[in-house]
Amino acid sequence: MHDIGNCVNRTDHAHSGAILAYNILKDMGMPVEERTEIMMAIGNHDENTGTAISDISAALILADKSDVHRNRVTNTNLSTFDIHDRVNYAVTNAELELNAEERKVILNLTIDTKLCPVLDYFEIFMDRTMMSKYAAKYLKIWFELVINGTKLL
What we know:
It is a single chain. This protein is α+β, with helices and mostly antiparallel strands. It has a domain at 68-151. It contains five helices and four strands. It has helices spanning 13-27, 32-43, 55-65, 83-90, 118-138; strands at residues 91-99, 104-111, 142-147, 150-151. A hairpin with a 2-residue loop joins strand 3 (142-147) and strand 4. It is globular.
């Protein structure tokens, strides 16, 4: 539901999505306190305009910003891939693991470097990675990024 605002416009989708979600949840009978918290989380999940403001928003950010994987790519013509297609297609495995004992969340990626260099991942995911780091910090846990077996954060 957090990306529902994309049906209006990709630009500022978090804010329009928050309003749409609020009204849907209201129509479903959700209590105002709960729908307000969900609305605020959705409205703050975009890396350009948002930040973690609650436990729910921090969890949403961590889940959303770790969403990189091959089956996101709908374009089947490799020769026409843009950088987003190339990076997503190159990620052959993505796991977001919570280690409660060590109080950390680990994003473990396997990137096929024959399809794209790891640097391409950072070209489009650096802001998202930093947002994940700050969301984890909000939750008082550590964010760790591991790519192809190498710990980077």
